[in-house]
Specification:
Phosphatidylinositol 3-kinase, Chain A, single chain
């Protein structure tokens, strides 16, 4: 899924913004959940993007860990970019290894898409708006006002992560998928 998003996402206008067919997504999700091999190259890239966001939303406690939610939210309130990057790196060290590996690939994809934002209209801000709610959510539900403020903060964090992913995860993030 990520390889396909890495390959086609940068040249797809509105990737992660436009939804795939709900019926197709539901059918494919059922197939994937039951272990059936699915050839996503035959599907719309928007279906793949929708399935991927759904996958992220179904990670128990979120990929960034709802237990660290307050710490993630407070990162953007810190001083300069260096302090933010160091705080983010310390938080990443607290995540399970599988989450870190997946995050590296996710931000490798987002970086590739952002690098061609003039073509696909998906700069770091737009990507963050679309993907942030799938990466972290509060451990308990709250009022709509508080949730709206939370979403803004997490979107700002994801935008920062996307814009600084090479410094946060290392330059090799740009070559995780090799030559596709």
């Amino acid at each position: 899924m990520l390889s396909l998003l890495y390959q086609e996402g940068p040249s797809t206008e509105g990737i992660f913004r436009r939804s795939g067919s709900a019926k197709t997504c539901k059918e494919l999700k059922e197939k994937l959940d039951s272990g059936v091999d699915v050839d996503l190259t035959c599907e719309s890239i928007f279906v793949t993007a929708s399935l991927f966001k759904d996958f992220l939303r179904n990670i128990p406690g979120s990929i960034l860990s709802s237990q660290l939610c307050d710490k993630w939210v407070s990162v953007m309130d810190q001083g300069n970019n260096e302090e933010k990057i160091k705080s983010i790196q310390r938080l990443i060290e607290q995540l399970p290894r599988a989450n870190v590996v997946l995050l590296r690939y996710i931000f490798g994809v987002l970086h590739g898409i952002e690098m061609r934002s003039e073509e696909n209209q998906m700069n770091a801000f737009n990507l963050a708006i679309c993907i942030a709610p799938s990466l972290l959510w509060p451990p308990v539900s709250s009022t709509p006002d508080i949730e709206s403020e939370f979403t803004k903060k997490i979107s700002s964090l994801v935008q920062f992560l996307t814009e600084n992913c090479c410094r946060i995860f290392g330059e090799e993030i740009t070559s995780l998928f090799g030559e596709i």
